[in-house]
Amino acid sequence: MNTALSFNRLVTLGLWVVGGGTALFLIAPIVAIVPLSFNAEPFFTYPMPGLSLRWYEEFFASDVWQLALRNSIIVAIFATILSTILGTLAAIGLSRSDCPARATLTAILISPMIVPVVVAAVGIYYAFAAVGLLNSLTGLVLAHTVLGAPFVVVTVTAALSGFDQNLMRAAASLGAQPVEAVFRIMLPLIAPGVASGALFAFVTSFDEVVVALFIAGSEERTLPRQMWSGVRETLSPTIAAVATLLIIFSTLFLATIQWLQRRAERQKLTQFE
């Protein structure tokens, strides 16, 4: 018995070591960027000669960086709105028992998550070139909607898997119209799933760079594209400052998504009780 316990403890310890080493290997390059954003000198070197906030000041004072930030926010907001509406409607339709060719439609809707981004970017480029949507924020919003909607479809479909369809039948028997039942019964219950999908769509749009390189012009540069251009042209610690802000931003969003998912699980358990 003692031998078995010792062996189990060794296995558990080994798993913790391997898991911790893997996490450290993945996180270390990201964490290494953060101190460099406070470097007093314009070099990516350790040890740093001093600390300074000059690169953050340069980011907030630069017209180029602020234009990129504004474009990213505008595109992400409108792409999130469109992705959430279209993705939620698609998920509701796919959740119906009488939906024809459900598996085929699901595969088509989530294909932007599976197809390599560069392949999707080439297709979007040629499609938008034919209708004059290149070099415009409208084209960028529509392209990011295509990339973000599948995340909404997946999260809302998962939320609907625990939704009791008998509630909709009960509402219909009491005289509620289908649209009224959706807005007053279904959406409040699956709201955490919809919010999680919206956050995923926002982060997807805000961090996307490949499609932006293909279809955005100089006046439509987003923050990730400006960072890409900065790496190629003039490698400055300002990029490290922007990267640090994006790390904080992404961490907060992921924490919010985790909170919403836990809330959805609690609601699901309450519903079954």
Automatic annotation (TrEMBL):
Annotated Pfam families? BPD_transp_1
Q: Name one GO biological process term.
A: transmembrane transport
Q: Where in the cell is it found?
A: Cell inner membrane; Cell membrane
Coiled coil residues, start to end: none
Q: Classify the main location.
A: membrane
Residue limits of the ABC transmembrane type-1 domain? 69-258
Q: Keywords in UniProt for this one?
A: Cell inner membrane, Cell membrane, Membrane, Transmembrane, Transmembrane helix, Transport
Would you identify the family this protein belongs to, as annotated? Belongs to the binding-protein-dependent transport system permease family.
| Annotated protein name in UniProt | ABC transporter permease subunit
Q: Which organism is it from?
A: Shinella kummerowiae
